[in-house]
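Shipment paperwork, digital attachment
Item: protein structure file
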Amino acid sequence: MAIPQRKMALGLIQMASAGSPARNLDKALGLARDAARRGANVIGLQELFLSDYFCQRQDAALFDLAEPIPGPTTEAFAKLAAELSVVAVVPVFEKRAAGVYHNSAAVLDAGGELLGVYRKMHIPDDPLYYEKYYFTPGDLGYRAFETRFGRIGVLICWDQWYPEAARLTALRGAEVILYPTAIGWHPAEREKEGPSQREAWITAQRAHAISSGVFIAAVNRVGHEGPPGGSRAGGLDFWGGSFVADPFGVLLAQGSVDREEVLVVECDPARIEAVRRGWPFLRDRRIDSYGPITERFLDRS
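Attachment content:
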């Protein structure tokens, strides 16, 4: 007799920043409760949810936003996870040591236990995304965590453009890869390039779902965030659009571009088995031929 498989119900919390860490934490905890009431058993939050997206400028005082893991934020969500019997993926600006900070996500099991931490591997440095100033690249590798409701891989924002990261996480046995995200438009680019930028973001991640036969979930922030006292002409318009794609890239749910939302989406692991039987990309990989992938660039000779 076949053993029934667990079903994972993802709750994605798409938030606009409320400004202060205390208000953002209260809002996130409240929205997580709402997700659990609606049946979610795995709660995912957006990248750096506890504050505004501070990487738009370089300011040493902003290192004061960082905290250790475990720390106040993970402890608050551990209590919630234990109370509601839910898994929580909690992004944290992690203070590892004096002068060593990471863009991280803690994974808490449904009893509140800290299963582990993922540290963002790919760190961007672009206008208004000055992350290399703040974050040390991750050194824990690509990970998947065995939770009460399934095996979850975590990657963060800029990681989502790299097929190598998704593949290695899938090879760790992840059934779902969750991407906490903070991505948006420069207001000056939105009208001309906005739709194509957003479609590229969605397409890249749907391709990861297809090529590795896993569920992909991206949870993004929403709303305009700019410099203190600045006009809407500056800063970033975060485009929301949080979504879940199944193992063949089918969009199961997608949020709006301009509203706070809680998406609750069931992910049946039987779908992974069905897709991989029909499209056995992992079976047909030529692992004997991929050595050069570790090179920065290949000579044309």
